[in-house]
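re: that chain from earlier
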Amino acid sequence: MSAARFRHRFAWGSAALLVLAYGAYLALLTPTIKLMQYDSDGYLGFNSQRTAGYPLLLKTIVGLFGTPAAVPPVQLALYLAAAWFLALSLRRLTGSPLLAAVVLATVTLNTEVVKYCFMIMTEAPFITLIMLALGATCRLLSGTGNETGVHQTGADGGWRWLALLSAAVGFAIAVRPVGYALLVMLPLALALAIGRATGWRRAPTKAVMAAIVPVTLVLALSTAAYHDRHGQWRTQSF
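^ sequence. v structure.
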């Protein structure tokens, strides 16, 4: 079996299992986990102690589906999709389907983590964004692989993964202030990418812009949303 065909089978096979897991979790966990937690009203009402990211996500979901009860299915779908993306990205980087499968099973079968998808709390979207950032990092480092397992990061596509990483970090900060700790990923990813790239040595501006613009734009929009709601140019009240 060719490497490309095996990758496709792994991708579609894992996707099918995640669809089954999605249905099983909705059926088993929805009746047993309380949707509204101690801080949930603060997020739904976007009070001054909350950053804008999660309240805006909740507003979007409720606006589309008409009820906060739609939050768990959406959060779970995003969580499982990010886990799938991380597993595929790790599979491409390492060439090990076993390692990718172990990581996928670890993040999707751990009900102590998955349960947060069924609560109006920031834990689930924050973890989702971390998985997205890690997946983007794996894609950035793996670049375009070949049948020998050698990976190169090129100027034509690698910067897009760096931009995705930057956006994921920005949204993570907008969801939870602790996301500021993830900013350290950007200069490290940029340095690693440029160090391994062949094309980026001639186009460092594109790489730097990919690392800076998305996170800056997301944080600017988050600050503007907070100002629109509370009249202050900041991300939260403290």
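Confidence is low (pLDDT under 50) at residues 144-156.
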